[in-house]
Amino acid sequence: MLPLAVIGNVNVDLILGPAPAWPQAGTEILVDHDELRVGGSAGNTSLAWQALNIPHQISATVGSDEYGGWLRKSFGQLGKDWPTCEGSTTLSVGITHPNNERTFFTTHGHLPHMSIQDVLASLDIKALKGGIALLCGSFLTNRLTDDYAHFFEIAQKNGIQVALDTGWPVGGWTAENRARARQWLGACDYVLSSENEVASLSGQSEQHDAARNVKAMMKPDATLIVKLGPLGALGLSAEDGIVRVPAPSVEVIDTIGAGDVFNAGFLAACAQHAPLEHCLATGVAIASQAISTAPRHYDFQLETALRETSP
To answer: Is the pLDDT of residue 146 over 80?
Structure first.
C-alpha cells in the first residue's frame, strides 16, 4: 500500500441544532442536540483513516489555548509533532437545520498562520516518498497556500502524488479565488471537488461540460473527482473517460464531513492501486455509512470495503 498523508485544517467543531428558522435578534431558542468534536477537512479525513486502520500521517497546527491541547490529545501520536501557533484555536459553530443543511460560523483562529515550515516540521517526507498527500482547507490556511508552489516542488522531487480538495472559499468563487485554484490544479494528480465547486471553477452549469473544463486545467494524466452527494460520485481521467458510481439509499443522520470521509475512502483505495471505478465505489460506500450512523462508525476494514464495492 502506498503511504498516505493529509495536510491542512484541523479545528474544533461545536454542532448545535436543529434550528428550523433563524431566531430574531435578541431572543433565545432551545435545541435538542449539541456535540463538541474534532473538525476540519484534514481532521475528518484522518479520523476516517484511523477508523479504517489505514496507516497515515497528518500535518496540522493548533492554537496555544485549551482547545489546541484538546485537539492534539485527540490525535495521540499522530499529533505529537504539530507546531503550536500562538493564540486561539480555530472554532466552527455549526447550526443544523431540519432539512439536513447546516450553517457554519468560523473564527480565524490558528489556521491562517499555518506555514510550509510547519508542514515540513510535522511531516516525514522520506516516509511519504512514492505516496499520496492530500491538501485540504486551502482557503482557510492562507499562509500555507501562498507556499503551495514550494510544496508541489517537494512532492515532485520525492515522487509524491498530490491530491487537492480546496473546499468552498469563505468569500465565494470570486475571480481571484478561481484564478488561485486554477493555478493549483495544474500541479495536482487528483482533484476532489463537489459538483458546485466544479461548476464555479469552470463557469459552466452542465455537469459533464464543467468536469471536462476543469479536467483540461489539470495534468494530462491527472484525475478529477466530482462528489455528487446523494447521487454518488463521478471520476474523469484520460485513461477511463467519465466513470459514475451511484450512492446507496440511506437514512441521513449527519452529513458533516461527508466529503472528507469520501476522500479518505477514495484515496485509501487509490493507495491499493485499485481501478478508478473501484476507488469511487469505496469512497461512496464509506461516506454513505458515515452519514447514516450516530455516533459515526465504520463496520468494515478497507480490504472488506474494496471487496464489497468491486464493480
So the answer is: yes
